[in-house]
Amino acid sequence: MLNLLLAVALAQVAPASTPAAAPLPSDPLPADWVAVPDDELLVFTLANGHSFTVRLAAKYAPAHVANIRKLAAARWWDVGTSVYRLQDNYVAQWGDATEKKPLVAGVVEAPPAEYSHAGPTTVARLSQRDPYAEWAGYSRDGWPLAGNGATEWLPHCYGMVGVARDLAPSTGSGAELYTVIGHSPRALDRNIAVVGRVIDGIEWLSSLPRGTGDLGFYKTEGERSPIVSARFASELPAATRPHFEYRAADNARFVAWIGSRENRAGPFFTVPAGGADICAALPPVRRRPNE
Length: 291
What we know:
Layout: H1 2-13, E1 33-35, E2 41-46, E3 51-56, H2 62-73, E4 82-86, E5 91-95, E6 117-118, E7 122-125, E8 135-139, E9 144-148, E10 151-153, E11 160-163, E12 177-180, E13 194-200, H3 203-206, E14 225-232, E15 244-247, H4 252-262, E16 285-287
Antiparallel strand pairs: 1-15, 2-3, 2-14, 3-13, 4-5, 4-14, 5-12, 6-10, 7-8, 8-9, 9-10, 11-12, 11-13, 15-16
C-alpha cells in the first residue's frame, strides 16, 4: 500500500512531457529536400567490403565527367586499381598505381582544363568575402561555389573530388581521382578539375593507414586498398540502390541556415563568429529518410 501511495504522489509531481521545440527559420520543409539523380551517383566498392559514393558534377566539368562515365561503363576500375595514396591532412587518391593500365576507347586523355566556368549561378551566398575569392555561395542544385567577377568554380573542401594530373599542360583524364580528407587545400582551386563530392562513406577513405612513401603514396602493393567495382546507382538493383537528397538553396529557409552557420547560437557559443568559410558550411546532403 505504501508503494502504491508513493507512486501516486510521484505521478502528481512529475513534470509534464516536454513540448516539441518550435521550428526555427532555418529548418527545411519536406519540399526543400530534392532527390539526387541516380545517374549522378558513382559507388566505389573496396575489397574490404566498404564503399563510398561520389556525386558527380557534370555541369561544372562535362568533359571529365564524360570520361568517368565511359571508364565506369567499361568496368575500368574493377581490375587492377586501388586506393594507393593517403597523405595525412590532405588527400586520398585512387586509380591505377602503376599508371600503365590502358584507358578505354572514347576516353579523351587531354580534356579541356575545366578548372572554372562562366558564372555566377549562385542562388544564395555567404555574407562575408571568401578568403580565396570575391564571394562564396551555393548553386540551386546543392553545390558549393566560389567566384570572382563572371567566373566561378567548385572549391577544394573536405570530401570534394578532383582529377589527379601531371604538370601542365596535363589536365588529367579522370581515371585517377582524389578526395580531400583534411584541411581544405584551397590553393588548388582553379588548378585542377573538380568533378564531384564524396557524399557517403568518406570515413572508409579517411581512416585508411597513412602512406609510407613520399606525399603519402604507399611503398608496396600490399599496403593499397583494392577497388573491386565502380557502379552508378542507376545500374544497381532497386533493392540495393542508395538514394540521396540535397537541400535546395533557393529559399528563405536556406538563407536563414547560412546565417546559423555564420553565427552559431546556443549555450556553448558565447561569441558569434560573424562569418563562415564555405568549407565549414557545405550544402547539406542526406540519405533519403527511412532508407
